[in-house]
Amino acid sequence: MNKSYQLEATCLTCKGEAYVLARPDLVDKYQEGELVQNVWPDASTEYREIIVGWRTGAYICPMCSLDDE
Ligand SMILES: [Zn+2]
Fold this sequence. Notes:
4 helices
């Protein structure tokens, strides 16, 4: 019933995959248009990036972000 969703994102640069576990009620809130920083105010940047990447398909992993000069 309260099983967490697994949200996956694939890095556009290296094709590496990342995922996070998120509460279904929070995912619903996010999909209804709430900003990621409002839904998960205490989550790490990386956690939020994966969630945004899962939704938009535009995810760059931390390793590749470092190379982005
Ligand atoms: Zn990458």
